[in-house]
Amino acid sequence: MDYYTAALIELSGEDINEKFAALEIEDDLETLKAKLNSSSPQVETKTVSITN
């Protein structure tokens, strides 16, 4: 069985538009995650003990 036939069998019975919309949303989500990870400043926390 070739890849084309396997893909058609997998998609049969499903709404193809829904499938492609879900893939587009996943791509957009990954793009946003990459932007957030690359543009977010890294915050380093430091705990200081204050005593009298």
What sequence of helices (H) and strands (E) makes up the elements?
A: HH
Strand count, sense and barrel status of the largest sheet are: none
Mean pLDDT: 80
Which structural class fits the helix and strand makeup? mainly alpha
Description:
- By secondary structure, the chain is mostly helical.
- The chain has a domain at 15-39.
- The protein is 63% helix and 0% strand.
- The termini are far apart.
Task: Present the secondary structure layout.
Elements: H1 3-11, H2 16-39
Provide a short characterization of the protein structure.
By secondary structure, the protein is mainly alpha-helical. It contains two helices and no strands.
Features:
single chain; 63% helix; mainly alpha; 0% strand; 52 residues
